[in-house]
Amino acid sequence: MERSKGDFEECFEWAVENRKKILSWDDVWVGNEDLKSKFLRLFSLSNNKDAKLGSFGEWLNGYWKRDLFWRKGLFDWEKIQELQLLQVVHDSCLVFGKEDC
């Protein structure tokens, strides 16, 4: 049976460490869908569509501080999506001082 490139890529997953290599919106780094597809409205409002995952925040004193920047204020329903997005990011492995792989 011949496998496609997609089948091969499904055998691997990201190890999220310092968040400097993973494209936050385009790479499938958590679950089985990229964040751009899962949160299309938020992607359209993002100020940095080609950002690495690390742009969602920064390490301060050993803790991850989340920061998201939008090109306009969010409606209430968009704020709910933002909270869902932040939960997805927060639930991923947070490891300080190691490289993504």
Strand tally: 2
Sequence of strands across the biggest β-sheet: 1-2
Spatial shape: globular
The figure for the number of domains is 1
The helix count comes to: 4
Radius of gyration over alpha carbons? 15 Å
Described by strand count, sense and barrel closure, the largest sheet is: 2 strands, antiparallel
The low-pLDDT segments are: 1-5
Describe this protein's structure.
- The chain is an alpha+beta fold and 101 residues long.
- Residues 1-5 have low confidence and may be disordered.
- A hairpin with a 2-residue loop joins β1 (57-60) and β2 (63-66).
- 31% of the residues lie in helices and 8% in strands.
- It has one domain (15-91).
- It has four helices and two strands; from the N terminus they run αααββα.
- It has a two-stranded antiparallel sheet.
- The longest helix is centred in the last third of the chain and has 16 residues, at 76-91.
